[in-house]
Amino acid sequence: MAQAKPTSSRTKTTTTTKKVAVIGFGNIGTGVVKLLYEKGIAGLELVKVVDIDIKRKRPVTLPASYLNTDWKATVSDPGVDIVVEVIGGIEPAKSILLAALNHGKDVVTANKMLLAHEGQSIFRLASTRQRRIGFRASFVGAHQLIHEFRQTGIAAKKFKRIYAILNGTCNYILSTMTREGEGFGEALSEAQAKGYAESDPSDDIDGVDTANKIRILLALISNSYHMVAPFPVEGIRDIALQDIQYATELDYAVKLIGVIEQNDGIFNVSVHPALVPRASLLGSLTGAYNGIELEDEYGTVSGLVAPGAGTYPTADAVIKDLLDIAEDRTMVMPKSAGALTLGPPEAIERRYYLRFSVVDQAGVLARISNIFWKYDISIAAVIQKETTSKEFVPLVITTHLAKEGDLQAAIDEVDKLEVVKARTKIIRILNANT
Amino acid sequence: MAQAKPTSSRTKTTTTTKKVAVIGFGNIGTGVVKLLYEKGIAGLELVKVVDIDIKRKRPVTLPASYLNTDWKATVSDPGVDIVVEVIGGIEPAKSILLAALNHGKDVVTANKMLLAHEGQSIFRLASTRQRRIGFRASFVGAHQLIHEFRQTGIAAKKFKRIYAILNGTCNYILSTMTREGEGFGEALSEAQAKGYAESDPSDDIDGVDTANKIRILLALISNSYHMVAPFPVEGIRDIALQDIQYATELDYAVKLIGVIEQNDGIFNVSVHPALVPRASLLGSLTGAYNGIELEDEYGTVSGLVAPGAGTYPTADAVIKDLLDIAEDRTMVMPKSAGALTLGPPEAIERRYYLRFSVVDQAGVLARISNIFWKYDISIAAVIQKETTSKEFVPLVITTHLAKEGDLQAAIDEVDKLEVVKARTKIIRILNANT
Q1: E-strand spans in A79-214?
Q2: How many Å apart are CA B186 and CA B196, to the nearest integer?
Q3: Which SS3 state, helix, strand or coil, does residue B254 take?
């Protein structure tokens, strides 16, 4: 009888408790400390908590012996097995992670900005030192996707596309504009008042946060810590209420979408507002949720919806990473230095929503459609409403598939027409289809 | 400097190719063979394909040397490392898996009926023999959830509830009834014509298939191969078009839902049609898709949508399991014998949709509401429409939270009133909330 040998990873059980230091005692740090210290998690023992301010009162009370202000001593402490970094920002977070890895610690981080920008040095050092990095918490809403890509590498799973809503602030603002008929500024103020947007909301509303998460996702997909070259990123500041209203009339919702498309190893990557079908998983996602739609190489589409942020979801993601390390499970992290190939944005074929600001006179539509004809851009739908405005009127056109380069050239030409009174608003249409 | 030792599972790379035998050369088997033989997957080599009929023409052509009809010789062949069972049904599938495990093979199966009914002996043998069972394909639409529960065990993650649409046939029928205004019979015939329902659709429409998947999910959640005691299962045969129409009017959709709720280690488990908010992830899921909504112990809700079946999604799930084995990754399988504790169904508190068939005369509503008062059941909404029918009229009531036992007792009493002319239709309301 053929008798295979048992393999180690399956029969292994946790025999020692891992000693955990948490660096950063803000909201997320407090959530992690609460779980580790108050609730208690088998296999994990909190031993140190570091913050520049250890006097302030927190919702969890720790004996003074746990607290210190010296991260350097902590990351080199032989009594610490795993370092959790939840302070955010680039420095000293980067130095903390590199020092911890150099001292042979495994690390867990919630810092998406750091990984998106400095992931190369951090993941490379982890690979070299054979240490682990847990980073579920760096994109909470999408962390289950890490598992989906466990086996990926580009070779194993030639997915076709990922469309993702990865920023709860933007989704909250766009949902509010749609539901309440409010303008961008008003919806932003409301989001700030309710704690869904920071007082400086730029990183969220300009698409930077979404782009950071897309970078981390790409590193996972490609199994490479070579961070991808810059790609087009556009935020939601310029989305007008009337665009949302026209979109609704056309049965679309306006969402900020992170796009990763792949065709034969060539990637299209971008972040921009898009019209997605209202009844789709992404189109129907409201509030501060995140959502992801993935189409695999066979055309099979699956989707995922999860809270985008929040203290407990983030702290919970940190704990999951700690447990993966404590129980010696296979972890997913980018381990090679191969670079992704991005295709030229001009060659991408999309459908477009276009809102022209034109004078209300004969021949306008003819002039615009002649230019479209020249660039071989075919019109799918037109909305022009009767109006009493003397200034200019909105003319909304959706196109069939057109090359980005052609579309931009056509719009440049249209915008030079004297009957066109303002820069044409361009929003891409994505056919999300769950 | 503290220098942790590198751990084995992280640094391991695949050095040998695993030899795979596929037993069952039907649709799924053909999909798996296409991927392994035509496309080729690094680390996996197809060596045998077994079927009782090896003469029939398939969409993939294999050299005759691969094919045989003798599963017994195949599962004991020292040249086979992993046995894939994709024949379905209880026997000989059960004997094949047990024999393969006894011969030291790892196994992969797509057979949810087998695991739901005979999982105990199969998982126990795998534990004893330290072999692996891959069974993602046994609940394709939900297989990402396996990862979510990798770390679970009941102790690690006290989730509150899972509501899941796990049967594409039922979801297709209910969606069609809703969209087209068709009755159950007509929608079923359409589903059969389009290949979404079997000629004998009982397992699907009576909730058996959903219940099988819920059993497997419970085994994962509890990390126990002690299969759970029988729980209430109700299908969709008795859903009338008018119930769907009233639900729509109340802003709900009718869906067949698998329910797992947990409170302090006591589980409520059931499968039944339910009204879920139309705009929720589950309520908006149409067609043959599967969807799952999970609420964790902090009240955080996440959701997952994926195709419920189909040759390629299933074959893809089989390949993922094979890769987990080939690359020696931690796999998830129930490994203990502990039993789950189910709570008494009468104690469950739910909201209810009730459709009474009453004569159109004074005092009917008073008599029904007096009975409700007696059982302390509070009414949330009432719909009664003017009618010209002389027979009886529908009276629809939704309740606030009420104990299942009280509700059943109240309805038993109502149904004995002489003004009530048919058995009252009871559908539970679930507040899915993504």
Answers
A1: 82-85, 106-109, 133-134, 161-165
A2: 13
A3: strand
Q: How far is the alpha carbon of A94 from chain B, nearest alpha carbon, in Å?
A: 20
Q: For residue range B183-240, list pLDDT tens digits in order.
A: 999 999 999 998 888 889 999 999 999 999 999 888 887 888 888 889 999 999 999 9
Which pLDDT belongs to residue B414? 97
Question: A4: which chain B residues are within 8 Å (Cβ-Cβ)?
Answer: 81, 104-106, 131
The predicted-structure confidence for A356-414, as pLDDT tens digits, reads as follows 999 988 888 999 999 999 999 999 999 988 777 667 889 999 999 999 999 999 999 99
Could you please state the CATH topology (level 3) that the domain comprising B15-134 is classified under: Rossmann fold (3.40.50)
Element (H, E) at B420: strand B420-429
Note the CATH number of domain A143-308+333-342. Answer: 3.30.360.10
| Encoded amino acid at A218, one letter | L
pLDDT digits (tens, 9 = 90+) for A191-243: 999 888 888 999 999 999 999 999 988 888 788 888 888 999 999 999 999 99
pLDDT, averaged across chain A? 88
For position A103, what pLDDT does the model report?
97
Q: What is the least distance, in Å, from the CA of B15 to any CA of chain A?
A: 14
**pTM (2 decimals)?**
0.80
Q: Does domain A346-429 have CATH number 3.40.50.620?
A: no
SS3 A434: coil
Q: What is the dihedral of CA A357, A362, A368, A373, to 10 degrees?
A: 160
Question: What is the amino acid identity at position A342?
Answer: L
Structural domain boundaries in chain B = 15-134, 143-309+333-342, 348-429
**Is B327 within 8 Å of chain A by CB?**
yes
Is residue B300 within 8 angstroms of chain A, CB to CB? yes
- CB–CB contact B151 A7 (8 Å): no
CATH of A16-134, one of 1.10.3720.10, 3.40.50.720, 3.30.460.10, 3.40.47.10: 3.40.50.720
Per-residue confidence (pLDDT) for residue A172, from 0 to 100 = 93
